[in-house]
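Minutes, project huddle
Topic: does the predicted pose make sense with zinc ion bound?
PN asked that the exact inputs be recorded in the minutes so nobody has to dig through chat later. Recorded below.
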Amino acid sequence: MDCKEFQKNIHRYLDGELADVDAERFASHERHCELCSHQAEELRAVSKMFEEDGLAAEFAVPEVLRAKTLRAFQEEVQENSVPSWWSSLSTGLRSGVMATAVVGLLLGVALGSTLSATLTPTSDRSLLYVALLDENVGELP
Ligand SMILES: [Zn+2]
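Predicted holo structure (C-alpha coordinates), as shared on screen:
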Protein backbone atom coordinates (compact mmCIF):
# COMPACT_ATOMS: atom_id res chain seq x y z
CA MET A 1 0.00 0.00 0.00
CA ASP A 2 1.39 3.37 -0.98
CA CYS A 3 0.10 6.86 -0.31
CA LYS A 4 -1.35 7.11 -3.80
CA GLU A 5 -3.59 4.09 -3.29
CA PHE A 6 -4.52 5.24 0.20
CA GLN A 7 -5.58 8.70 -0.92
CA LYS A 8 -7.42 7.39 -3.95
CA ASN A 9 -9.73 5.31 -1.74
CA ILE A 10 -9.60 7.31 1.47
CA HIS A 11 -13.31 8.20 1.37
CA ARG A 12 -14.37 4.58 0.89
CA TYR A 13 -12.05 3.60 3.73
CA LEU A 14 -13.41 6.25 6.10
CA ASP A 15 -16.99 5.45 5.14
CA GLY A 16 -16.38 1.79 5.96
CA GLU A 17 -17.13 0.69 2.42
CA LEU A 18 -14.01 -1.48 2.05
CA ALA A 19 -13.79 -5.21 2.63
CA ASP A 20 -12.25 -6.15 5.98
CA VAL A 21 -8.97 -7.22 4.41
CA ASP A 22 -8.59 -3.92 2.58
CA ALA A 23 -9.70 -1.89 5.58
CA GLU A 24 -6.96 -3.56 7.62
CA ARG A 25 -4.36 -2.65 4.98
CA PHE A 26 -5.59 0.95 5.05
CA ALA A 27 -5.54 1.08 8.84
CA SER A 28 -2.00 -0.26 8.79
CA HIS A 29 -0.88 2.39 6.31
CA GLU A 30 -2.57 5.08 8.35
CA ARG A 31 -0.67 3.95 11.45
CA HIS A 32 2.67 4.17 9.70
CA CYS A 33 2.24 7.16 7.43
CA GLU A 34 2.12 10.59 9.00
CA LEU A 35 0.84 12.33 5.89
CA CYS A 36 -2.06 9.96 5.30
CA SER A 37 -3.03 9.70 8.96
CA HIS A 38 -3.14 13.48 9.12
CA GLN A 39 -5.40 13.62 6.08
CA ALA A 40 -7.64 10.90 7.46
CA GLU A 41 -7.94 12.79 10.73
CA GLU A 42 -9.00 15.95 8.97
CA LEU A 43 -11.61 14.13 6.94
CA ARG A 44 -12.92 12.41 10.06
CA ALA A 45 -13.20 15.79 11.76
CA VAL A 46 -15.20 17.11 8.82
CA SER A 47 -17.64 14.23 8.71
CA LYS A 48 -18.00 14.37 12.50
CA MET A 49 -19.04 18.00 12.18
CA PHE A 50 -21.58 17.05 9.55
CA GLU A 51 -23.06 14.47 11.87
CA GLU A 52 -23.16 16.75 14.90
CA ASP A 53 -24.32 19.98 13.33
CA GLY A 54 -26.10 18.73 10.26
CA LEU A 55 -26.17 20.98 7.23
CA ALA A 56 -25.08 24.08 9.16
CA ALA A 57 -21.59 22.58 9.28
CA GLU A 58 -21.42 22.81 5.53
CA PHE A 59 -20.34 26.41 5.85
CA ALA A 60 -18.03 25.97 8.83
CA VAL A 61 -14.94 24.49 7.22
CA PRO A 62 -12.19 23.72 9.73
CA GLU A 63 -9.52 26.43 9.79
CA VAL A 64 -6.74 23.95 8.98
CA LEU A 65 -8.56 22.67 5.92
CA ARG A 66 -9.41 26.18 4.81
CA ALA A 67 -5.81 27.37 5.06
CA LYS A 68 -4.60 24.27 3.26
CA THR A 69 -7.06 24.71 0.41
CA LEU A 70 -6.18 28.37 0.09
CA ARG A 71 -2.46 27.58 0.02
CA ALA A 72 -2.95 24.88 -2.60
CA PHE A 73 -4.97 27.30 -4.68
CA GLN A 74 -2.35 30.03 -4.40
CA GLU A 75 0.40 27.63 -5.41
CA GLU A 76 -1.67 26.55 -8.37
CA VAL A 77 -2.18 30.15 -9.43
CA GLN A 78 1.53 30.90 -9.06
CA GLU A 79 2.48 27.85 -11.08
CA ASN A 80 0.11 28.51 -13.92
CA SER A 81 0.62 32.23 -13.46
CA VAL A 82 -1.23 34.94 -15.33
CA PRO A 83 -1.18 34.85 -19.13
CA SER A 84 2.18 36.02 -20.54
CA TRP A 85 0.60 38.75 -22.63
CA TRP A 86 -0.79 40.23 -19.42
CA SER A 87 2.61 40.20 -17.66
CA SER A 88 4.25 41.88 -20.64
CA LEU A 89 1.90 44.86 -20.41
CA SER A 90 3.00 47.94 -18.49
CA THR A 91 0.98 49.04 -15.47
CA GLY A 92 -0.60 51.86 -17.47
CA LEU A 93 -1.67 49.51 -20.23
CA ARG A 94 -3.06 47.05 -17.69
CA SER A 95 -5.37 49.67 -16.17
CA GLY A 96 -6.33 50.63 -19.71
CA VAL A 97 -7.34 47.06 -20.47
CA MET A 98 -9.25 46.80 -17.19
CA ALA A 99 -11.06 50.07 -17.87
CA THR A 100 -12.03 48.89 -21.34
CA ALA A 101 -13.36 45.65 -19.90
CA VAL A 102 -15.43 47.53 -17.30
CA VAL A 103 -16.81 49.95 -19.90
CA GLY A 104 -17.67 47.00 -22.14
CA LEU A 105 -19.47 45.33 -19.26
CA LEU A 106 -21.46 48.49 -18.45
CA LEU A 107 -22.35 48.96 -22.11
CA GLY A 108 -23.55 45.37 -22.23
CA VAL A 109 -25.78 45.95 -19.20
CA ALA A 110 -27.13 49.21 -20.61
CA LEU A 111 -27.80 47.61 -23.99
CA GLY A 112 -29.48 44.66 -22.30
CA SER A 113 -31.85 46.88 -20.33
CA THR A 114 -32.67 48.95 -23.43
CA LEU A 115 -33.41 45.86 -25.46
CA SER A 116 -35.69 44.37 -22.85
CA ALA A 117 -37.50 47.72 -22.52
CA THR A 118 -37.99 47.77 -26.31
CA LEU A 119 -39.21 44.22 -26.40
CA THR A 120 -41.77 44.55 -23.62
CA PRO A 121 -44.51 46.29 -25.69
CA THR A 122 -44.19 43.55 -28.33
CA SER A 123 -44.76 40.83 -25.80
CA ASP A 124 -47.73 42.78 -24.41
CA ARG A 125 -49.16 42.93 -27.90
CA SER A 126 -48.68 39.23 -28.40
CA LEU A 127 -50.51 38.67 -25.12
CA LEU A 128 -53.36 40.75 -26.57
CA TYR A 129 -53.37 38.55 -29.67
CA VAL A 130 -53.55 35.48 -27.54
CA ALA A 131 -56.47 36.98 -25.58
CA LEU A 132 -58.30 37.87 -28.83
CA LEU A 133 -57.65 34.41 -30.22
CA ASP A 134 -59.02 32.83 -27.05
CA GLU A 135 -62.22 34.88 -27.32
CA ASN A 136 -62.73 33.91 -30.97
CA VAL A 137 -62.01 30.28 -30.39
CA GLY A 138 -64.58 30.36 -27.62
CA GLU A 139 -67.25 31.38 -30.16
CA LEU A 140 -66.51 28.51 -32.52
CA PRO A 141 -68.99 25.61 -32.53
ZN1 LIG B 1 0.70 7.56 3.13
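Observations noted during the meeting:
- Residues 91-139 form the longest helix (49 residues).
- The chain has a mean pLDDT of 77.
No decisions taken; revisit at the next huddle.
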